[in-house]
Specification:
This protein has helices at about 35-40, 50-55, 60-70, 75-85, 90-95, 100-105, 115-130, 150-165, 180-185, 190-205, 220-225, 255-265, 285-295, 315-325, 375-385, 420-440, and strands spanning about 10-15, 15-20, 145-150, 170, 210, 230-235, 240, 255, 275-280, 300-305, 330, 335-340, 345-350, 360, 365-370, 370-375, 390-395, 400, 405. The chain has about 450 residues and is α/β, with parallel strands linked by helices. A hairpin with a 2-residue loop joins strand 1 (about 10-15) and strand 2 (about 15-20). The longest helix is centred in the last third of the chain and has 21 residues, at about 420-440. The protein starts with 9 loop residues before the first strand and ends with a helix.
């Protein structure tokens, strides 16, 4: 929940508050108090055209919940958020607000945007603290639906379908549900307890989650169909990290961002982060890797990015937070070689992208956070035992060439999506699934 009222803090920037004893499992951004939440909501201009709401991919309706907080109706604010975004508490922490609702806020032209993300977190934290539940699913009397995977897109689709009266079962290969939420986002931004609580909201709608069950191995698609499921949602996280085509990437000590973050988070930080860590990349995932290494005790962490600080795609506050905890940045440098001795990383060489300069940084761990790309769709389909030649027929609606199979999240895109985009995908796919089932007589 962030810092307690009596904790000693060092203010770094609006919204960021560092504790001297900041640890890997501690959330960085402090929560708003009732007073500061009311004060922030009062700054809202109550725009008639609500550009913030138009800019929210998931339709969370910031204009409505900010208005509710402004008039001291926090319960109403929580109801608005949860009714439109089943993962509202998660999105309140990891949504790229400066590129969506806050970026569109009309106050930006006056001073600074409303802190929409922190107000959303305030309302969803209030929901938890008071113990009330916004959503209640109707009796599950319609056709059964199964999901493969429990990432944010699948969770959103499952919740939407449950609210329409469909019984939903989610099959998850891992021991934790949540996909990237549980394995790919540093606790400083998204603590695991928040993920677990949000998933409980989905379970409370009657959705069953079956863990440690890999579709294609532990259960087949045909077996799922034979159990009476009339539609299947493919929502597995099917991204893998890219590595650069430079010498030395096969050395011991070179890691991919997704695997590095998953290893740390799934063990609650009980891993060796490396002593001298170099992270390649300038996005939010790179910042997560650098933060993870530093908070787990790495002596020196350096981020190499090929463009300037201003061009880095990472959230500004996250980037500044990294700088504030002693992470070094080398902007306008691109790696040319990972140097090793005895099969182990000892340094990394990089060349300037704006001039003829070069550097060599000592390292025992090099993490590539330069983006992700989807796994081969045909291979995934074959591995799941689905029809050969299956393809996505309508990306916007999640329909595929196999009538009863729908896709959500990363697999439905050539680029990595944010959590809020996945939530939007799930809602849209649920509408398509419901229409398909109604046409098949499954209501």
């Amino acid at each position: 929940m962030g810092c307690s009222d009596d904790a000693v803090t060092i203010e770094v920037k609006e919204g960021i508050s560092l504790r001297p004893d900041q640890g890997y499992l501690d959330e960085t951004v402090s929560p708003l108090t009732p007073f500061t939440a009311a004060e922030e909501a009062a700054r809202c201009l109550l725009c008639h055209d609500a550009p913030c709401t138009k800019a929210c991919p998931a339709g969370t309706r910031p204009d409505a919940f900010i208005r509710a907080i402004r008039f001291q109706n926090t319960k109403g604010a929580a109801e608005i958020i949860r009714s439109n975004n089943i993962l509202g508490g998660i999105c309140a922490r990891v949504c790229p607000f400066e590129k969506t609702c806050e970026g569109a806020c009309a106050r930006t032209g006056i001073d600074r945007p409303i802190q929409i993300g922190r107000l959303q977190r305030y309302a969803t934290d209030y929901e938890k603290a008071t113990g009330f539940r916004v959503l209640e699913a109707p009796p599950a009397t319609k056709a059964k639906v199964a999901t493969i995977g429990t990432g944010p897109g699948a969770l959103s689709a499952a919740a939407s379908l449950a609210m329409m009266g469909h019984p939903v079962t989610m099959f998850e290969a891992n021991e934790r549900a949540g996909g990237v939420l549980s394995y790919g986002i540093v606790p400083a931004r998204l603590p695991q307890y928040v993920v677990d609580e949000e998933i409980d909201h989905v379970r409370d709608l009657g959705v069953e989650i079956v863990l440690n069950t890999r579709v294609g191995t532990d259960i087949t698609v045909d077996e799922i169909r034979n159990r009476g499921y009339k539609a299947i949602v493919l929502g597995a996280g099917l991204q893998y990290s890219k590595l650069m085509d430079i010498p030395g990437t096969d050395l011991n000590g070179v890691e991919a961002a997704v695997e590095y973050l998953a290893k740390a988070k799934s063990s609650n930080g009980k891993v060796d982060p490396g002593k001298r860590v170099v992270v390649i990349g300038g996005g939010d995932v790179a910042m997560d890797c650098a933060t993870t290494a530093r908070l787990l005790g790495a002596e020196k962490v350096t981020v190499l990015y090929r463009r300037t600080r201003e061009e880095a795609p990472a959230n500004r506050e996250e980037l500044q937070y990294c700088e504030s905890i002693g992470i070094n940045f080398a902007f306008t440098f691109s790696p040319t070689e990972v140097v090793g001795e005895g099969g182990k990383v000892v340094s990394i060489k990089a060349a300037g992208t704006r001039d003829a300069s070069s550097i060599e940084v000592e390292a025992d761990t090099v993490i590539f956070a330069i983006g992700q790309e989807p796994a081969d769709f045909a291979a995934v389909v074959e591995g799941l035992g689905l029809a050969r030649g299956m393809y996505v027929e309508n990306s916007g609606e999640g329909r595929t060439s196999v009538a009863d199979v729908f896709v959500v999240g990363d697999i439905d895109s050539d680029s990595t999506k944010t959590v809020v985009n996945a939530v939007a995908d799930g809602k849209t796919a649920a509408t398509s699934i419901a229409a398909y089932l109604a046409g098949k007589g499954g209501n």
